[in-house]
Amino acid sequence: MIVGPRSFDDRIAIIGAGPSGIHMAYRLKELGFRNIEILEKENRIGGRVFDVLHRGTVQQMTFLIMPPDYNELNQLIKEYGTGSIQDVPEATVDFFAIARLLYPEYTRGASDTELRMRLRREVIRYSILHRRLFGIYIPYLMQRPRNARVRRAIRGTVSQFLRRNRMPLIETTVMYFYQTLFGYQQPHRVSAVYGLMWITPKFCHALLDQSVPLFSFFDSGLISLLQTLIHNYNIEIKLNTDIKRITRSRDMQNGNVQIHCSNKFDKSRTFIEYYDFLIVSPSMRDLLNVMDASPVERMIFSRQITDTYFISSLIDSPYGIKSDRPNIAHAKTLLRYDFEPNVHVDIFAMTQNYSGSTFRLGFTPGGYDGKRILSSVYYQLGRLDPRIPAVGLDAEHKLRRYMIQMQRIPYSVIARFITPYHTRFSVSDMDKGIIWNVLDLQGHKNTWYIGASVTYDTAGAVIQYNNRLLRNYALPGSGYRAL
């Protein structure tokens, strides 16, 4: 059991109005806690989720795709969502391009059909191995491995794990297209544990069952769901809050947590808020300079790293060159990871189920207004911060070059979103079990640590992590677990 709020009347501060912070506020409100306040530094909710309503379509700048393990998010959408869950059509992509580049001897002379049969056998072996290592658990974070054999088996990078187990096609297809493409770094740079968290046996079974799409998406966007939760549960959010200092102590008369903050647009006036419990949803590493971090907190969270940056651009353009499907992925850009556009998505066409030659030849409208204008979101991934002018200019140049290749000139950028992505722990730290050390630390100094940096950087993962904490927390005065 973990330590948490001691009374339903406790004042609880949640830092960050992203999916994890708002979901935790909703769950605590649902359980009966009355005094919850979210402090958000930006002037909007959503954190790394950003939606734009354009031409009647919710354009998801961080596209929410839901694999089969998103049980709890799916249930939340069905209960509170105002739109519908739709299937994501298979992307137009050369699925074995990376395999042929990295393993020429293994793939030489093999047709795509033969490679698919080999991949199928690897996926079956992977699923069996995953079950042997971790058993059955609620995704996304498995139980801490207690067996030394299991700890040795999952050490190293994703690539090292798969090569030890002779699974080259999973490395070059599944991990590149379903991990790297979504912003979770290349297999040779990230811990095997992250890969095993994301690619679960249930994911493997869905991958093998080609009768149904692997992913789904919520056509109204995640922001609309968060807004519904805020409204229905009367969640109080203070936007534009700049936190100056956080002090936690049992000796304070007005509460265990003291937060010094100011309005983002009036930094001359600092005010103090008192709370009984603190929940942190952004990366703790970013708060270490303003928090009275204990030695163990500093030892763990100073080790978090961010080396993935994400640019999404909503662009209006002529139709140009189109494929039979509304989403296109480019395999070889995933090897470079240098802001070459790696995928673009026509979300309106997806909601209308447009595909085939009629779509490719441009006989379908580009929006609810009926105009023959293509409104697509283009995604770029890289390891350098595009907010650095030289890096940003290079990324813009690569996007323009791509638009010229696709014959989509002239074009107009309607909206752009830039964010660091997939804050995580290093391979060596994950080998030592640091992600489970965070679980052991929950409740330390009247604090819970939630959000993408302590689990996996997806909406479904942070929601299921919140519920995991609540399953291991006894409600005040009852002794019963919250879930």
Describe the model:
The protein has 483 residues and is α+β, with helices and mostly antiparallel strands. Helices cover 35% and strands 21% of the residues. The protein has helices at 19-31, 71-80, 97-102, 104-107, 112-134, 148-153, 158-164, 168-178, 192-198, 201-208, 222-232, 295-301, 333-336, 347-351, 356-360, 389-405, 427-431, 434-441, 459-471, and strands at residues 11-15, 35-39, 51-54, 57-60, 65-66, 85-87, 216-218, 236-238, 241-248, 257-263, 266-275, 277-280, 308-317, 327-329, 338-345, 374-382, 412-421, 447-449. The chain has a five-stranded parallel β-sheet. The protein has a five-stranded antiparallel β-sheet with strand order 14-15-16-13-17. A three-stranded antiparallel β-sheet has the order 5-7-6. α1 (19-31) packs parallel to α19. It is globular and about 70 Å long. The two termini are 12 Å apart. GO terms for molecular function: oxidoreductase activity. InterPro entries: Amino_oxidase, FAD/NAD-bd_sf, Flavin_monoamine_oxidase.
Kindly, what is the distance between the CA atoms of the first and last residues, rounded to a whole number of angstroms? 12 Å
What is the CATH architecture assignment of the largest domain? 3-Layer(bba) Sandwich
- Strand arrangement in the largest pleated sheet: 8-2-1-12-18
Strand content: 15-25%
- Mind telling me the CATH class of the largest domain? Alpha Beta
Alpha plus pi helix count: 19
CATH fold label of the largest domain: FAD/NAD(P)-binding domain
Taken together, the total number of domains comes to: 3
Number of separate strands: 18
What global shape is seen? Answer: globular
Low-pLDDT segments: none
The CATH superfamily of the largest domain appears as: FAD/NAD(P)-binding domain
Structural class: alpha+beta
Helix content: 25-40%
Radius of gyration: 23 Å
- Mean of residue pLDDT? 92
Specify the biggest β-sheet. 5 strands, parallel
